[in-house]
Write a structure and sequence with these properties.
The complex is a heterodimer.
Chain A (H helix, E strand, L loop, with lengths): L5 H25 L3 H21 L3 H26 L11 H24 L17 H9 L7 H22 L7
Helix pairs in contact in A: 1-2, 2-3
Chain B lengths: L2 H21 L3 H25 L4 H33 L13
């Protein structure tokens, strides 16, 4: 441990987490079985949470684990189990569609990275944020303050949207009387 | 670990999600790919907030909003999936013609 400096250790950790996330995301979109892809989605989300921890955003990492890995993926798995039989093979994908998808996304990635590499002021390794920029007290003070820089109105709107989404989901998924 | 590396990671994840949305025919598979894309956008928010922002806390707050909106979106989308499966017994997006009738 004394041989490896702190910066080098965090670099190695970053590359390991990034590689794991990319591999998990690739398995997620290529898996034949949807349940398998949902499980690898959890791996990708947990990798993201570790990345947030390395960026000193502990509360966001916790929210990531709770909402995504705990809520969204479990919801997706429930839906998969409700709407398909286990072991059922997924819909087959034709080769032209596959090729077009890979070509378009590779082109998108190429364009994005090309324009990113042109920007010179982006290779910063020292953060400008203070270490507690995303700690629970600073986030809560910011979210709930009524100052012009506060986010109280979007916060209330988000709670309203969550309520509306809940009611809408129940209304859409409910069985109507005419249906068998 | 620089800002550039975080951004390239998020771009790669976004491209993987785009590829998944374009090539999947199953509706739940498309939703899973959209989750990957939103996750990549969130990584972008946090890494800009940490490395470069004048107001870092605002960036973190926006990622919380993204997480909340994603939860709403997945709830409604999966409700539509359940309702569609009940009507058609299939989740092939090529058969979703009756949404625009």
């Amino acid at each position: 441990m004394s041989l490896i400096s702190d910066a080098l250790f965090s670099d190695i950790m970053f590359y390991a987490v990034a590689a794991a996330m990319i591999i998990a995301a690739l398995i997620t979109i290529t898996a034949k079985n949807l349940l398998q892809s949902a499980v690898f989605l959890i791996v990708s989300f947990v990798g993201t949470a570790i990345l947030y921890l390395m960026l000193h955003a502990e509360f966001i990492a916790m929210a990531q684990i709770m909402v995504y890995a705990g809520g969204v993926v479990i919801f997706v798995i429930f839906t998969i189990l409700l709407t398909s039989h286990l072991g059922e093979s997924s819909l087959n994908i034709k080769v032209p569609r596959n090729f077009i998808a890979i070509a378009l996304s590779a082109g998108l990635l190429f364009t994005l990275v090309r324009f990113l590499l042109k920007a010179k002021d982006i290779q910063v390794a020292t953060p400008t944020a203070s270490p507690d920029y995303a700690s629970l007290p600073s986030l809560a003070l910011r979210l709930l303050s009524a100052d012009p820089s506060g986010f109280i109105i979007p916060f209330e709107l988000i709670s309203f949207i969550l309520l509306v989404a809940l009611i809408c989901a129940i209304t859409i998924a409910r069985k109507f009387k005419g249906e068998e | 670990m620089t800002l550039e590396h975080c951004l390239i990671l998020s771009f790669i994840l976004f491209a993987i999600g785009t590829c998944g949305v374009l090539r999947q025919r199953h509706m739940v598979g498309m939703l899973i790919s959209i989750e990957i894309m939103l996750n990549a956008a969130n990584i972008n928010f946090i890494s800009f907030a940490y490395f470069k922002a004048l107001d870092a806390t605002a960036g973190a707050v926006f990622s919380i909003f993204v997480i909340a909106v994603t939860a709403c979106e997945i709830a409604i989308a999966l409700a539509i999936v359940v309702s569609m499966y009940r009507r058609h017994h299939s989740l092939d997006v090529n058969q979703l013609r009756d949404l625009h009738e």
